[in-house]
Design a protein that fits this description.
The complex is a heterotrimer of chains A (286), B (321) and C (224). Chain A is built from twelve helices and two strands; from the N terminus they run H-H-H-H-E-E-H-H-H-H-H-H-H-H. In chain A, helix 1 runs antiparallel to helix 8, helix 6 packs across helix 7 and helix 10 packs across helix 11. The radius of gyration of chain A is 19 Å and the shape is globular. Chain A starts with a helix and ends with a helix. Chain B contains 13 helices and two strands. With 321 residues, chain B is mainly α. In chain B, helix 1 packs antiparallel against helix 6, helix 6 crosses helix 7 and helix 7 packs across helix 9. By secondary structure, chain C is α/β, with parallel strands linked by helices. Chain C is built from eight helices and nine strands. In chain C, the strands form two sheets. Chain C has a six-stranded mixed beta sheet, with helices on both faces. In chain C, a hairpin with a 2-residue loop joins strand 8 and strand 9. The chains are: A mainly alpha (286), B mainly alpha (321), C alpha/beta (224). At the A-B interface, helix 4, helix 9 and helix 11 of A face helix 5, helix 10 and helix 12 of B.
Amino acid sequence: MSAFVSYVVHGIAVGCGFALLASGLIIIYRVTRVVNLAQGTFAVAAAFLAATLLGAGVPHGLAELLTVLVAALLGVVAGVVTIGKPGTSPQASLIASLGLSIFGYAVEILLWGDQPRSFAGLTGSFELAGVELPKQYALIVVITLLVFGLLDAFFELTYLGKALSACASNPYAARLVGINVVGMSLCGFALGGALGGVAGVLLTPMSPVSYDTDVLFFVNGFAAAIMAGLKRPLYALGGGIGLGVAESLVAGYAKASYQSAFALLLTVVIVVVQSLRSPSARMSEE
Amino acid sequence: MGRYAFAALSVGLLLLAALLDAGSLPLYVLFLLTAVVTVGVCLLMGYAGQVSLGQGAFYACGAYTAGVLATQGCPSVLALAAAPLVAALLALLVGVPMLTLRGHHLAFATLATHLIFLSVIGEMSIAGGDVGLQGIPPLAVGPIAFDSLRDYAFLACLTLLGVMLLVNNLLDSRPGRAIRALSSSEAGAAASAVPVGRYKLAVFALSAAIAGLAGGIYAFQIGYIAPGSFPVLLSIGYVVMAAIGGLGTLFGGVVGSAAVMLLVHLLSRLATLGRMPPTAPAILSYAVYAAMLILAVLFLPNGLMGVASSLYARARHRPAR
Amino acid sequence: MNVIEVQNLIVKYGGATALDGVSLAVSPGEPVALVGANGAGKTTLLNALSAVVRPAAGQIRIRGRFAHVPEGRQLFPDLSVDDNLRLGAYRVRDRETAWIYRILPELERTRKQRAGSLSGGQQQMVAIGRGLMGQPDVMAIDEMSLGLAPIVARTLIRVLGELNRERGLAVLLVEQSARLAFSLCTRAYVLDAGRLAASGTPRELIDSGVLSDVYLGAADRVPA
């Protein structure tokens, strides 16, 4: 029983990380129609940067904050490359983001080497249902809920958030009204970068990250985003947590190496089912 | 594709196979096999308009099919022949549900296919698990044994040329024209009574078979394969080379592979000179890969072949194809 | 001092020429109609005025604020009516919507509703309201009556007329239905296949028969 509880809680924590990655993907997609293959790269770069800052003596909290800000900047860079050139099709942007993630490898290895890195998060443990669990798990869940709450408030209550949503739903009308669609797109990318950064900073204390972990981050983040239909970040929270828990249970009771295959298979199935159910959605992607 | 250009290419490639020194042969064979897969990718992405980030899975499938069969006692020729067939079967298996997908969904599903394949093959003991499959015997066709690298170079050469001819003749045929219609407009193709789904699947399976054949040859040539030999970056690499070479052309596959591999190799050599850190080759390869991909996709939508054909057209004062 | 001045505008889409040397002008507070058959280039002209498409040649001068109410309403469907209106004020600082509800009282009860769930007529009102929020000096409206019941279209024309008279809002009304446009506008331009076929008062245009030629095709007209 205690094993079950620890698997589930572990899964929830990891799933929150997936949900954060997913919400970054969703925001970028909704504002720019681009699937950002470099989303995982934001998280990995953030992890490395945080490790460096903490190692240099920068206090917890400040190090993470600075890291997230840098991640937001990286997001803007990604935005400039993928959509900065007018007339870039979404497919070309997709491949350009792929190129960016590979370029990220070069920079990461150059600055930090090719070995996995980690850093200590919130040390100590707490007790839940008679099981001792790392406090980091609780931190992840709390921060994730906070972030999602802020995101929701941003989009539902602020003028800028509404302008961003408008860009996403009708870029032509947004332009007519005077909204700078390119500027908004870069804002979306900045948010996506920041969210990826938060995910990286929260997940790394749980398991070391190396330059090629971005594939895992992206795959899981995209899986959760797909379950939310690439639409509402809030649904990605449920999807991410569900995915995290499912993977954790598979790793715990079956074989650890099967967990990503499972996640992938599940995502592909969902994607195919979604496609079959809405032919209009298929056509509109072109 | 132009008859003279093809003839020139054939002569050039065969000469290189005959004349290159033994030290350069491993890279040459790898280039030839990579070009074979990339031609398949050009076919899939350029003509049928489907984006695949998982061709590496079919390459790996072919390699493992040939390797497992050969190590289990099957005659190597049959094992090699089975490689493209099994790869095509895998493509059909995953292709049927993926037919309904578009754009980024298809890209993701093909990427997932590669990752899932690696995961599964890493668990199969008959394939050597995570450690890999060792002791694959060299290829033997009756009395002819392929035991030197130069033999494999010739084989790879002939395979590449054969595949290019096959695909070229296919594209010139009636089903081929239908396939070309797919890349410009699926709705248009469907409207003209082209069985879009079936053709998409056929092209997907064909490109997988091509990759599988290359993989089979690779297994025999190198003698040892493991899941680590086929990282996701491999699949991505094929797309990079196809994009840089030019998606809608057959020469694009060869040109793109050559350009990228040469550049990466040169930079790796540069990096090992002087006092560069051991990670320098990796850094430079990734950086160059990435820069070439981004520049190609943003500024050269028709790849190097597109640049070449517009230069050629301008030189002849004729409108580009 | 015209509030809109267009001279010899040429707009191309790839190889095709959508507008071939069009000139027109709108004076402050003037209601002007732009009529023509489907595909004549009316929407392209408005897109050029909004700087959504870049002209190949010609001059566009706009003095004051320009609002473009696009064809098909083009609302933000998932946002509320109130949010749609407030986004219309993106360029100006005053986001107060009360005056819009006074002009278009029917929208008052839909304030919090999802814009995508409204009827066609209500959506058109939201679109016009959104345009007004930008406090324009001239407003161009594209195919306002499309898909609307005649009584609804007449109500909207009446509202536009009030805005024109009481606030001095110049209006560029783009319509396939010339009759509806003429009920409000004192001057009109006729666009045919990217070129200006005629201009003048509604009376002049009706009498000259150019309208029936343009819409129905005169038997002896040389193809453009």
